[in-house]
Structures are given as structure tokens and as C-alpha cells.
Amino acid sequence: MDILQKIIAHKEKEVAERKGLFPPKLLEQSIYFESKTVSLKKYLLREDKSGIIAEFKRKSPSKGVINAHAKVERTTIGYMQAGASALSVLTDSEFFGGKNEDLSTARKFNFCPVLRKDFIIDEYQIIEAKSIGADAILLIAACLTPERLKELAAFAKTLQLEVLMEIHNEEELHPYLSPDLDVVGVNNRNLKTFETSIETSKMLVDKIPNEFVKISESGISDPATIVELKKAGFQGFLIGEAFMKTGRPERAAAEFIEAVQKQLSV
């Protein structure tokens, strides 16, 4: 069983429990349920932003604890001041040490798109995403059948949430494409070995139809890589670990974005 299968097995139990504890009718009473969402797609395409989705995560299955002490408020405000286009917040507790409150805190202190980074397998989690203040959700092709992913993407649209679909290879691309997707992300991490390779993104960028915003995820730690990926055709970049593994993630993000801007202006 690879890590993704383990996570999904746990997620099925977790969702069943949460449905009993917090029924959808209760979630729909949240102050965020009627709020207008901020477009991830539009922010990624803004010329005055970096295209970087800066991520808040405490740990991961591949690295263990990354940063147990960072504060959501300070880190996320700092990310946005540094010039990030959007925020990604891990809400999975078991494997990534996140919680729903992390996302609500990020939402409270920032006017920008906030992506709920979790392993979504059920409509309930999309209602939950809306109730905690998310603007966009992640759907991972490797976790879902094409039909199921399309159903979940269509459901997200009924709640005005945007959808980022994540793929790891070409097989996960065309069968899953749907007009309800906004962003397609290539995850450079091999889920079986945990190794990352930017070549994965480069191989797939031209295969993704241009109506979707294209982003590269995982294994980006050098500003020169952003320049390279931009030239290849990517418009967004999801970066978490490179920032979070430092003592001050928001400062690391500011220095990184400044270095990218310098290289792009050369």
C-alpha cells in the first residue's frame, strides 16, 4: 500500500466520523457560507503578483516534522506581504499536522485566495471547505476515478469554489479534464519513491490545454527553477517545504520572491 492509499483509507473513516459530528446543515450556518470567494485563477494570472502559492504545512509523510512552531497568522500575512499570489493551507491532521482552524485563521487575516489542501473524496469535504473559508479545493487525480473527480468538481462549482486538479503523469490528465476545473497542477513528487523531479512538469506542460492555468508543485527550492518553469509555460508554482523548513517561513518567502524578480528582470 503506497502512502496515498494509506491516506485515503484513513480519510474515508475520518469523513464518516465528521459527518456524524458536524452534519452539512450545521456547516452551512458558517459565516463563510454566503461569502463571495476570491478567484485563485485570476490571482495567479495577475501581473503584479509572483504566481507563487505559498503553503502552510507543519509536517509531511516524506519529511516528518517540518516546522512545529510556525504560527498561521504571522506566516500567512508574511507570505502575502512578500508577494505570494495565494495561500495553500494543509487541513489534514493525521499525516500533515494541519487542522481546519488553520485555514480559517489564514482566511481571517488575508484577502487573497486560500486553497484547502486536503485529500477530498466526498462532497461533504467540499461543504466543509466552504464553511471554513476556502476559495478553492484540491482534487487529486490519483485518488479518484475520472467520473468521481468530475462529479466533485461540478459540486464545488455549485458552492462557487474553484478547483485545482493535481496530476503526476500524462495518464492522469486527459480522462479527468472537465470544464469545471480552473487550474491543473503537476506534482513533481513520485508518490512511490517520494523523489521529486522538475522534469515531470516540463514533460507535461504542453499536454495541458491552455484554457486551464498551469502550475508546478513540489520540489521547487531554487528561484532559477521558477524562471525555467515560467519559460516552459507555467503560470503558478506551489511552494511549501522550502519556506516552512526555515525558522521564519515568511522571510524565506520574501527573499525567494525577491530573487525570482531579480532573475526575471535580467
From TrEMBL:
EC number of this enzyme: 4.1.1.48
Pathway the protein acts in: Amino-acid biosynthesis; L-tryptophan biosynthesis; L-tryptophan from chorismate: step 4/5
Residue span, Indole-3-glycerol phosphate synthase domain: 4-251
Signal peptide: none
Gene3D superfamilies reported for this sequence: Aldolase class I (3.20.20.70)
Chain coiled-coil ranges: none
EC main group: lyase
Record has Hydrolase as a keyword: no
Keyword match Transmembrane: no
UniProt catalytic activity: 1-(2-carboxyphenylamino)-1-deoxy-D-ribulose 5-phosphate + H(+) = (1S,2R)-1-C-(indol-3-yl)glycerol 3-phosphate + CO2 + H2O
Keywords of the record: Amino-acid biosynthesis, Aromatic amino acid biosynthesis, Decarboxylase, Lyase, Tryptophan biosynthesis
Pfam families assigned to the protein according to its UniProt record, in alphabetical order: IGPS (PF00218)
Source organism superkingdom: Bacteria
BP-aspect Gene Ontology terms: L-tryptophan biosynthetic process
GO MF: indole-3-glycerol-phosphate synthase activity; phosphoribosylanthranilate isomerase activity
NCBIfam families: PRK00278.2-4
Protein name: indole-3-glycerol-phosphate synthase
Gene source species: Roseivirga ehrenbergii (strain DSM 102268 / JCM 13514 / KCTC 12282 / NCIMB 14502 / KMM 6017)
Organism lineage string: Bacteria, Pseudomonadati, Bacteroidota, Cytophagia, Cytophagales
